[in-house]
C-alpha cells in the first residue's frame, strides 16, 4: 500500500507513534516519537528534540521502522524508512518547532524542551498490520447514520458566519455572534477571542463561549502556550492529543529536575481554557501584518480538528480581523462627532456616603494605585487600563453625581495613560462591561449612543484608594 492510503489522522499524534532503530552492530532500540509529519508520497519528517540513542543509531545505520495507529479504528501501520537528512532551519523546521514551543512554554520548559532538527526519512515500504486487533463480536447491523444537515457543510458554514458578522451592531455583538456561529455551524462548543492589551505584550479574552464566567478576562502572554505562540508567530497551530503532549513535556521536566537542572526551569503557566482539553486550534487575526487578536477553539475530543479546518478557518479568521478593524473605525468616526462632555451635577445624589435603603446593598470598591487593580467587596474585579477607567468613572460620579460619559473624553484624559497609537479603548470597555456583569451586576456601563455610555448604579458604594500592591 501507499503512504497516502493512511488516514491523515494517523499523523495527528493522538496516539504515540513508535520508531525502532538499531546501531551498527544490530542492537535494537525502540522509543516513542513526538511528531510524525506527512510530507509527500515518499517522505515523512520526525522530530528530534534530543541527541538520543535513536539519532545516534540512524546516523550509523539509516534504516528504521515506524508504527502508526489510526486513533479511530486502532488499525496499525508499519512503515519502513531510511534516514535522509536533518533540517535545522526553514519552513519545515519552523512549523514543527512551533508546536513543541507551545507545549514547552506551557510546562515551563521553554529553552530546554525544544526541537533540534526536523529529520527527513524516505519511505521504503508501508504495510497494514493484519490481526493487530481482534475482530469485533457479532452484533446486529446498526442503522445507517443520517447525513449531516446541509447547513453544516463548509460553504453553508462560511455563509452563516459571514451573515451573522455582517449584522453585528457593535464590537461586543460581533465577537459573540462569531463564536456562536462557529458552534452552530461546526460544533465548536468551546472558543474564545483574545485581543492584545495596551502594552502589546499580553492578550486578554474579550469574548468566550462554553466556559461560563471563567473565560472573560483570562490573560496569556505573547509566546506562552498555543495561543501565545500563535500570536507571536502569526501562524495557525493545531494540536491533537494535547493531554499526551503535556504528559510528555512534564515527564521531561521531571527528568531535568531530578538531574539537578531545576534552576533552568520556569514555573508551569496556567493558561485559559479547558483543563482536560484533548485538541486545540488557534488562528491569528491579522490585518496588514499587524496582530488584531487570536481565535482559539478546543475540545475534549482528541480528533475534533482536522487538517482541512486550518485553511478553511483561516478564511473566517481573515473576515473576523477585518470586521474588528471596520467596527472600531466606525465607532471612532461616530465618536469624533461627539464633543467631550464637561462634568456636571445632574441632581442625583452621590452614591458615596449615602445610606442604603431597604433591600439595597452597599458595594465597597478598593483601588490599588501601584498595579491599577480594582477589587469589589474583597473580590478581584479588573486591573490595568480597564481598572483605571472604572476608577475614573466611579470617582467622577462620587464627586459630581455625573452619569453620562464619552469614549473621546477617556481617550483624551492623560491620567489614564492610553497609548497615542492604537489605544484599544473600545475592546477594554467591552471587557470592563462584561466583568461588571459577572462580579457586580448592580453597577453597569450602558451604551447610550455611538461613543457614549451611562453609568447605572443599583445602590450605594464606597471608594477606597491604597498605595500598595494587591494582597
Biggest beta sheet summary: 7 strands, antiparallel
CATH architecture name of the largest domain? 2-Layer Sandwich
Overall SS class: alpha+beta
CATH superfamily of the largest domain: GAF domain
CATH topology of the largest domain: Beta-Lactamase
Order of helices and strands: EEEEHEEHEHHEEEHEHEEHEEEHEHHEEE
Oligomer: single chain
List keywords for this structure.
3 domains; six-stranded antiparallel sheet; Pnp Oxidase, Chain A; seven-stranded antiparallel sheet; Arc Repressor Mutant, subunit A; 471 residues; alpha+beta; 20 strands
Description:
The protein has helices at residues 53-60, 91-106, 154-167, 171-186, 225-233, 242-258, 309-336, 384-400, 407-412, 425-439; strands spanning 17-22, 28-33, 36-40, 43-48, 63-69, 76-87, 117-128, 190-196, 202-209, 219-221, 237-240, 279-287, 290-299, 363-368, 373-376, 379-383, 404-406, 443-449, 452-457, 461-466. The protein has 471 residues and is an alpha+beta fold. The protein has 3 domains: 3-128, Pnp Oxidase, Chain A, CATH 2.30.110; 150-247 and 269-333, Beta-Lactamase (2-Layer Sandwich), CATH 3.30.450.40; 363-466, Arc Repressor Mutant, subunit A, CATH 1.10.10. The strands form 4 sheets. Strands 2-1-5-6-7-4-3 form a 7-stranded antiparallel β-sheet. Strands 10-9-8-13-12-11 form a 6-stranded antiparallel β-sheet, with helices on both faces. It has a 4-stranded mixed β-sheet with strand order 16-15-14-20, with helices on one face.
Amino acid at each position: 500500500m501507499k503512504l497516502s492510503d493512511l488516514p491523515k489522522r494517523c499523523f495527528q499524534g493522538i496516539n504515540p507513534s513508535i520508531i525502532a532503530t538499531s546501531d551498527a552492530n544490530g542492537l535494537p532500540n525502540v522509543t516513542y516519537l513526538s511528531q510524525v509529519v506527512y510530507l509527500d508520497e515518499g517522505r515523512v519528517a520526525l522530530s528530534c528534540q534530543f541527541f538520543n540513542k535513536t539519532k545516534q543509531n540512524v546516523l550509523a545505520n539509516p534504516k528504521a521502522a515506524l508504527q502508526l495507529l489510526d486513533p479511530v479504528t486502532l488499525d496499525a501501520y508499519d512503515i519502513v524508512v531510511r534516514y535522509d537528512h536533518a533540517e535545522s532551519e526553514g519552513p519545515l523546521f519552523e512549523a514543527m518547532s512551533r508546536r513543541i514551543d507551545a507545549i514547552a512554554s506551557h510546562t515551563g520548559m521553554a529553552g530546554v524542551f525544544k526541537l533540534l532538527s526536523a529529520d527527513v526519512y524516505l519511505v521504503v515500504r508501508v504495510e497494514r498490520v493484519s490481526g493487530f486487533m481482534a475482530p469485533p463480536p457479532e452484533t446486529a447491523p446498526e442503522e445507517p447514520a443520517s447525513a449531516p444537515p446541509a447547513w453544516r457543510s463548509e460553504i453553508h458554514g462560511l455563509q452563516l458566519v459571514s451573515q451573522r458578522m455582517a449584522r453585528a451592531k457593535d464590537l461586543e455583538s460581533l465577537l459573540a455572534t462569531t463564536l456562536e456561529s462557529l458552534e452552530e455551524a461546526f460544533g465548536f462548543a468551546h472558543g474564545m477571542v483574545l485581543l492584545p492589551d495596551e502594552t502589546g505584550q499580553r492578550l486578554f479574552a474579550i469574548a468566550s463561549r462554553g466556559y461560563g464566567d471563567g473565560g472573560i478576562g483570562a490573560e496569556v502572554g505573547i509566546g506562552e502556550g498555543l495561543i501565545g505562540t500563535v500570536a507571536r508567530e502569526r501562524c495557525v497551530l493545531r494540536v491533537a492529543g494535547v493531554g499526551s503532549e503535556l504528559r510528555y513535556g512534564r515527564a521531561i521536566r521531571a527528568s531535568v529536575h531530578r538531574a539537578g537542572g531545576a534552576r533552568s526551569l520556569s514555573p508551569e503557566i496556567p493558561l485559559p481554557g479547558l483543563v482536560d482539553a484533548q485538541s486545540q486550534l488557534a488562528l491569528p487575526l491579522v490585518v496588514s501584518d499587524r496582530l488584531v487578536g487570536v481565535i482559539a477553539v478546543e475540545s475534549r475530543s482528541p480528533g475534533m480538528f482536522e487538517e482541512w479546518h486550518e485553511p478553511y478557518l483561516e478564511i473566517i479568521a481573515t473576515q473576523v480581523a477585518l470586521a474588528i478593524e471596520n467596527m472600531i473605525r466606525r465607532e471612532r468616526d461616530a465618536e469624533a462627532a461627539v464633543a467631550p462632555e464637561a462634568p456636571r451635577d445632574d441632581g442625583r445624589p452621590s452614591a458615596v456616603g449615602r445610606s442604603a435603603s431597604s433591600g439595597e446593598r452597599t458595594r465597597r470598591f478598593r483601588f490599588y494605585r501601584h498595579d491599577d487593580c480594582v477589587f469589589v467587596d474583597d473580590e478581584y474585579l479588573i486591573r490595568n487600563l480597564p481598572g483605571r477607567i472604572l476608577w475614573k468613572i466611579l470617582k467622577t460620579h462620587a464627586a459630581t453625581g455625573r452619569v453620562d460619559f464619552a469614549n473621546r473624553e477617556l481617550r483624551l484624559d492623560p491620567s489614564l495613560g492610553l497609548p497615542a497609537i492604537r489605544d484599544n479603548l473600545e475592546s477594554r470597555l467591552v471587557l470592563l462591561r462584561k466583568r461588571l456583569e459577572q462580579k457586580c451586576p448592580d453597577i453597569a456601563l450602558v451604551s447610550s449612543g455611538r461613543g457614549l455610555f451611562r453609568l447605572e448604579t443599583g445602590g450605594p458604594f464606597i471608594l477606597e484608594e491604597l498605595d500598595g500592591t494587591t494582597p
